[in-house]
Design goal:
The chain is of the alpha+beta class. The chain has one domain: Alpha-Beta Plaits (2-Layer Sandwich). The chain is built from six helices and ten strands; from the N terminus they run E-E-H-H-E-E-E-H-E-E-H-E-H-H-E-E. Helix 2 runs antiparallel to helix 3. The longest helix has 26 residues. The chain is globular.
Length: 229
């Protein structure tokens, strides 16, 4: 996988919004296996390792997403305005995953320990409101709650990117280039508080398959999306 992906190659699609209330992208990067890691690791060493891994994720932010908050093992990213294409989101995950795995390898060597940790990402879109408390920005809305609930899902893999139907429909409705969600993807439906949520996920757990060789149609190049009215 080539981590040197330039930002200008990522095609973006504007959606209606304003600075505090409107449609936006939600991306949650979550470290799988973190609870067991905390229980079995010295607090000082564990905090240092956690800082290193979370930093590798934040430094991989090629979509220029904003960080809303960091909750233990998860980073909550969001973006108003420009909605990335499906291929751009998959590329974003691949960069995060590659840098995360590289950092994990270095940590294992440095601390002489085996860590069963991996990275998963949840991506959703919907209306949300941003407000401030002192120096902190907070997001409020049903879509925010839904994104958090999707972390609890029946996906057997520990390393994957999950795209909700709301996200896919918003993007695909404005382009005929839907290879990214037709090839090598798995679709599931889960019920949360009587509401069914459909989503598609890509499984990256097979370490024998290089990330760059996973087939999701993105190697054909990026096509610009039309404006969402």
């Amino acid at each position: 996988m080539n981590n040197k992906i330039t930002k200008h190659r990522l095609q973006l699609c504007p959606i209606r919004q304003n600075s505090v209330d409107g449609n936006g992208l939600i991306l949650i990067a979550d470290i799988s296996g973190f609870t067991k890691f905390v229980q079995e690791t010295d607090a000082l060493v564990g905090s240092k390792i956690t800082q290193m891994l979370l930093s590798s994720i934040v430094d991989s932010n090629i979509l220029n997403l904003k960080v809303n908050e960091i909750e233990g093992d998860a980073i909550f990213f969001y973006k108003y305005g420009n909605l990335p294409s499906i291929c751009s989101i998959l590329k974003q995950y691949e960069v995060m995953l590659g840098n995360f795995n590289n950092k994990l390898h270095k940590i294992r060597t440095q601390f002489k320990t085996q860590l069963d940790l991996s990275l998963k990402v949840i991506v959703h879109v919907g209306k949300m409101t941003q407000f401030s408390i002192g120096k902190f920005n907070k997001l409020y809305g049903t879509s925010v709650i839904e994104a958090h609930r999707l972390l609890k899902n029946p996906i057997p893999s520990k390393s994957y990117v999950l795209l909700t139907d709301e996200l896919i429909k918003t993007v695909i409705h404005h382009t005929n280039d839907d290879d990214c969600v037709q090839t090598n993807a798995k679709m599931l439906s889960e019920k949360y508080d009587k509401k069914s949520m459909e989503f598609t996920y890509y499984d990256y757990q097979d370490q024998n398959t290089p990330v760059s060789h996973l087939k999701h149609g993105c190697n054909k190049g990026f096509k610009p999306l039309t404006h969402i009215q």
